[in-house]
């Protein structure tokens, strides 16, 4: 059953949606492209250049990645614990400016400590941009078709593709410093496009009363805990496994292929990610989400392992497509499943587990990086397969008909539940 959020009473003070909802989609996509696609993931195609040109060791690269993910967890938790932040246009703009500044400052030093200090606030800014943009989509596009937010989340993939193309072009005639400055310029351009994005409006007075959740009279709410536990384990393990590929895939591919193949594969990751959120949301309307989650995790595990098992262009490109097509989709399916189960604060809990997993991923594989990236990718693939096993447990007896009724609304009479869109790798 597609998840839908019941409409709330609107007021003139809240303001009408943009004349064209696609304008709002474009602004939100630009914010997500800047905050996630560039601010968070441009490190992936630049890190091989820093290894060869700036003296960055593999272990130090893992520490830089971890610092960024710690910052992201801090920003995500701030958005969860202080909802007023999500409604602040000033904070959105300040976060975009901090992000651009942190990218531009990376080339001015060769100090690993300073790089870590810069990647930490960049992670905080990325998370705040993400939660503000997602909340804006939830608030202003709630009465529009569900595929619109899905295309907005495609901004993450667009940012990955654009920054990957930029690094691929720059590396042909300049060094790692120019790659960071070019990325900062791209983030600045996207910031201009996202500058007038309207955050979520202040909440209106409640007009509906939630009734107890039922599952056709067979299962009380408390019983959903066993399925949520399996979902939480699966999503946390996915955070550990996917982030290793999300950080080191380009460097791993370049170990066995010409240098341009790694950056080219990263561009392909972004291209494959652009439509994936809308696609997996559409599939979730027709097939069981736990089943789709299991399939997506298995496909991703195969994609992560390919560059470690086979050298050459074909393996690299297939890996890029499989990884790009699944990492946002898995978040789409996991968060929608958590919302379907109606487990208290499911999105916040899943976000926290996923974020902790992203912090642990680079630390877990850091000892393996002395021998290259292939062992790290194989370990990451194994972790994602473990996530798939947890998803397989989730499918056993899954309550497909958990509903929540809301009095006084058409959704209450039909038994629909809240729609949660597809976050690009966070869920905040």
DSSP, total strands: 0
* H and E order: HHHHHHHHHHHHHHH
Structural class: mainly alpha
**Biggest β-sheet description:** none
Identify the quaternary structure here: single chain
Give the helix tally: 15
Q: How is this fold's topology laid out?
A:
Elements lengths: L20 H18 L4 H11 L4 H24 L7 H17 L6 H29 L6 H24 L5 H19 L30 H32 L2 H15 L2 H8 L5 H21 L3 H29 L4 H20 L8 H22 L14 H5 L14
Please, could you describe this protein's structure?
- The protein has 428 residues and is mainly α.
- The chain has 15 helices and no strands.
- Helix 3 packs parallel to helix 5 (112-140) and helix 4 (89-105) runs antiparallel to helix 7 (176-194).
Task: Give a concise summary.
The chain has 428 residues and is mainly alpha-helical. The chain has helices spanning 21-38, 43-53, 58-81, 89-105, 112-140, 147-170, 176-194, 225-256, 259-273, 276-283, 289-309, 313-341, 346-365, 374-395, 410-414.
Which characteristics define this entry?
15 helices, 428 residues, mainly alpha, disordered C terminus
């Amino acid at each position: 059953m597609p998840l839908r959020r019941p409409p709330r009473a609107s007021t003139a003070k809240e303001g009408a949606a943009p004349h064209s909802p696609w304008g709002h989609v474009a602004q939100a996509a630009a914010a997500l492209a800047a905050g996630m696609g560039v601010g968070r993931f441009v490190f992936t195609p630049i890190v091989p250049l820093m290894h060869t040109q700036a003296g960055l060791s593999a272990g130090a690269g893992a520490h830089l990645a971890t610092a960024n993910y710690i910052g992201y967890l801090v920003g995500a938790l701030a958005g969860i614990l202080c909802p007023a932040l999500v409604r602040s246009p000033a904070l959105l703009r300040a976060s975009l400016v901090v992000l651009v500044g942190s990218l531009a400052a990376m080339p001015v030093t060769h100090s690993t400590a300073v790089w870590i200090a810069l990647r930490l606030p960049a992670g905080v800014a990325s998370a705040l941009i993400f939660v503000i943009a997602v909340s804006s989509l939830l608030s202003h596009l709630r009465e529009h078709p569900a595929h619109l937010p899905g295309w907005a989340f495609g901004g993450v993939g667009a940012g990955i593709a654009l920054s990957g193309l930029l690094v691929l072009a720059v590396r042909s005639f300049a060094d790692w410093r120019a790659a960071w400055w070019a990325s900062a310029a791209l983030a600045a351009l996207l910031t201009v496009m996202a500058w007038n994005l309207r955050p979520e409006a202040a909440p209106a007075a409640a007009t509906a009363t939630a009734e107890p959740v039922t599952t056709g009279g067979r299962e009380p709410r408390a019983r959903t805990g066993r399925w949520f536990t399996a979902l939480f384990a699966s999503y946390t393990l996915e955070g550990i496994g996917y982030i290793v590929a999300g950080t080191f895939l380009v460097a791993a591919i370049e170990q066995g292929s010409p240098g341009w193949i790694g950056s080219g594969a990263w561009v392909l990751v972004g291209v494959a990610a652009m439509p994936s959120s809308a696609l997996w949301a559409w599939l979730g309307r027709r097939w069981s989400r736990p089943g789709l989650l299991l399939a997506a995790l298995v496909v991703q595990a195969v994609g992560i392992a390919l560059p470690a098992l086979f050298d050459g262009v074909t393996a690299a490109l297939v890996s890029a497509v499989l990884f790009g097509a699944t990492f946002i989709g898995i978040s789409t399916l996991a968060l929608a499943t958590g919302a379907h189960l109606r487990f208290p604060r499911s999105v916040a809990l899943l976000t926290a587990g996923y974020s902790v997993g992203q912090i642990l991923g680079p630390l877990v594989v850091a000892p393996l990086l002395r021998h290259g990236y292939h062992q790290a990718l194989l370990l990451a693939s194994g972790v994602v397969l473990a996530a798939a096993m947890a998803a397989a447990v989730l499918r056993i007896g899954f309550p497909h008909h958990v509903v929540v009724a809301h009095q006084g609304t058409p959704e209450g009479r039909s038994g629909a539940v809240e729609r949660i869109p597809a976050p690009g790798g966070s869920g905040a």
